[in-house]
Amino acid sequence: MSKSSVINHKEKRINAISKKANVMMLCILSVFALLCVLPVLLVVVVSFSSEQSIFQNGYSFFPTQLSLNAYRFFLRLGDQIIRSYGITIFVTIVGTLFSLAVTTMLSYVLSRPDYRYGKILTFLLLFTMLFNGGLVPSYMVNTQLLGLRDSVWALIFPMSLNAFYVIVLRTFFKSIPMEIIEAAHIDGAGEFKTFLRVVLPLSKPGIATIGLFTVIAYWNDWFLGMLYIFETKKYPIQTLLQSMQNSLEALTQSSANALEYAEMAKNAPTDSGRMALTVLVVLPVMLAYPFFQKYFVKGLTIGGVKG
């Protein structure tokens, strides 16, 4: 047997083994993907199930009786749901834009090798990732010093700066060649113009990745609403969901016709109602994610290589 035929035989064996490994890996990843999708599917199915079928058979992917009572109930409570949705949408949009503005500017400054205090600020950022002042001091600062109690801004400012996001974007900005920035300076652009016209357009994947993280963080946050908001009509949708899991009192308090809503609360769907509200909360994020997926994957890949 000639040397070339031996090499070809080995290459065929390697290719066959590689194909088998790819098939096995694909099967394993498919199983993991299915395990991630099944809980979401169960939530959707239960939200369309009747309370009686849930009581008799428990949670099931194959309900014996379908019902829209949970969604009808929330339509009758439309004022509170719509108000909470509006607050959450406002907080998510404004909070994400403000957080990205602060995070990108700070990250760009820290990524510049000629910035004198870069190491000191980076150390302070890393220090806050390990230690913080605690819940009580932050509550006193936000309520007594800044006056954010029962204010929508209390849902935005405490989450506007994340040290981890700054470190990730700083690493991403470092991947931009300094020659491009120096060329912009030679053309007469100042620091701020260089940042807006040169750095930001080249950093769309990284900014989109951090933006997606920030959107999800603001959209899913319920703790700040529970901590700083005391009027039910100012609840964001996640805090409303948390209140729903405990009782329906938070919904009845916002109604002018308390007797009517109290009667509704007696017949309110409990398990299917929670699932229906979960679907209403998760659905916008699920619909928006495909538009960010391309930048999200690319941003994570570049950050991983450079980090």
- Count the DSSP helices: 15
Q: Tally the structural domains.
A: 2
Q: Kindly provide the radius of gyration, computed on alpha-carbon positions and rounded to a whole number of angstroms.
A: 26 Å
Task: Assess the beta-strand content as a share of residues.
Answer: under 5%
Q: What topology emerges from the helices and strands here?
A:
Layout lengths: L2 H45 L3 H7 L11 H8 L1 H34 L6 H13 L4 H11 L17 H12 L3 H9 L4 H12 L1 H17 L2 H6 L8 H10 L2 H4 L5 H9 L4 H36 L1
Helix pairs in contact: 1-15, 3-15, 4-7, 4-10, 5-7, 7-15, 8-9, 10-15, 12-15
Membrane topology: Multi-pass membrane protein
Family: Belongs to the binding-protein-dependent transport system permease family.
Pfam family, one: BPD_transp_1
Structural notes for this entry:
The protein has 307 residues and is mostly helical. It folds into two domains: 3-47; 69-306, MetI-like fold (Orthogonal Bundle), CATH 1.10.3720. Helix content is 76%, strand content 0%. It has 15 helices and no strands. The protein has helices at 3-47, 51-57, 69-76, 78-111, 118-130, 135-145, 163-174, 178-186, 191-202, 204-220, 223-228, 237-246, 249-252, 258-266, 271-306. Helix 3 (69-76) crosses helix 15 (271-306), helix 10 runs antiparallel to helix 15 and helix 12 (237-246) crosses helix 15. The longest helix is centred in the N-terminal third of the chain and has 45 residues, at 3-47. The radius of gyration is 26 Å and the shape is flat.
